């Protein structure tokens, strides 16, 4: 029997091939969970699987979370491989792309918000059985302040409302639903095309004077996923090194 804070649990992590999802899947596995890694990027997903199997038990599902029926396919895959579901980390996210404002808005909402809602709905019958936990990766962008893009901020703000709604409605089943609002985290999602000046500016605007690591967000996800957070639901936990509370150079 595996040991750890998620011993005996089954977890799904979307966007698990990179960044925050990869670090979370790895930590969940190290803490005893059997983990289904979900991503749309095949090569990265395969290397993530190799990495996580060094720490524990894992399987993969290659899918775009915004595709029709993806929520059901993801949940079915976890139940088929591992026999149940306890932890659902809905983490896959995009900036939103397209040639027009309408395309960019629709693409961000489809992946960042609609897929999260449909994934949670698909998991409900299994999470009811296990009294499980849902962890949603939102952002300080939209979740607390508005600085990224209309589509990104709107989608992430929507996740906070969704978190509160599901936590309120599903608490009766013992299901907890929480969001994380990361600040600037060193992943391919940000910074890839950023100048040294821009990165220095972000560091200077952050109370702790640095960007965060994916592992630091994974530890927040582990807290929310585990029994350590047994009385925490409907929360949106900011993990931003103090970016949103730091306005002066005092
Ligand atoms: N990095 C940051 O500073 C930061 C800050 C706040 C919030 N976030 C959020 O954290 C989450 C993870 O971001 P990250 O920084 O680890 O980025 P990342 O680019 O390192 O990882 C994101 C992963 O999600 C996958 N993905 C994206 N869209 C998908 C889809 N439709 N279907 C399946 N997989 C998909 C990508 O292939 C990638 O592997 C996102 O929701 C992002 O909005 C990131």
Can you walk me through this structure?
By secondary structure, the protein is α/β, with parallel strands linked by helices. It is built from 8 helices and 7 strands. It has helices at residues 19-30, 42-53, 70-82, 101-130, 140-143, 150-170, 196-205, 214-225, and strands at residues 10-14, 34-39, 58-62, 87-90, 133-137, 176-182, 236-239. A 7-stranded parallel β-sheet has the order 3-2-1-4-5-6-7, with helices on both faces. Helix 1 (19-30) packs across helix 8 (214-225). The longest helix is centred in the middle third of the chain and has 30 residues, at 101-130. The relative contact order is 0.14. The model has no long low-confidence stretch (mean pLDDT 96).
Question: Secondary-structure map with pairings?
Answer:
Elements: E1 10-14, H1 19-30, E2 34-39, H2 42-53, E3 58-62, H3 70-82, E4 87-90, H4 101-130, E5 133-137, H5 140-143, H6 150-170, E6 176-182, H7 196-205, H8 214-225, E7 236-239
Parallel strand pairs: 1-2, 1-4, 2-3, 4-5, 5-6, 6-7
């Amino acid at each position: 029997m595996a040991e750890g804070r998620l011993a005996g649990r089954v977890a799904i992590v979307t966007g698990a091939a990179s960044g925050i999802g990869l670090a979370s899947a790895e930590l969940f596995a190290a803490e005893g969970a059997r983990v289904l890694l979900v991503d749309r990027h095949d090569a990265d997903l395969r290397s993530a699987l190799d990495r996580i199997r060094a720490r524990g038990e894992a399987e993969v599902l290659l899918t775009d979370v915004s595709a029709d029926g993806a929520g059901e396919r993801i949940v079915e895959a976890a139940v088929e491989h591992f026999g149940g579901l306890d932890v659902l980390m809905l983490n896959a996210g995009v900036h939103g792309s397209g040639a027009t404002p309408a395309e960019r808005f629709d693409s961000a909402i489809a992946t960042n918000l609609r897929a999260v809602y449909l994934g949670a709905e698909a998991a409900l019958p299994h999470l009811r059985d296990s009294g499980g936990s849902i962890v949603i990766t939102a952002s300080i962008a939209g979740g607390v302040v508005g600085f990224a893009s209309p589509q990104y901020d709107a989608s992430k703000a929507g996740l906070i409302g969704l978190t509160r709604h599901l936590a309120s409605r599903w608490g009766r089943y013992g299901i907890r639903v929480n969001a994380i609002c990361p600040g600037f985290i060193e992943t391919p999602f940000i910074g890839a095309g950023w100048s040294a000046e821009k990165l220095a500016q972000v560091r200077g605007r952050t109370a702790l004077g640095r960007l965060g690591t994916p592992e630091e967000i994974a530890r927040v996800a582990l807290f929310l996923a585990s029994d350590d957070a047994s009385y925490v639901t409907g929360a949106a936990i900011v993990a931003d090194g103090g970016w949103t509370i730091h306005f002066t150079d005092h």
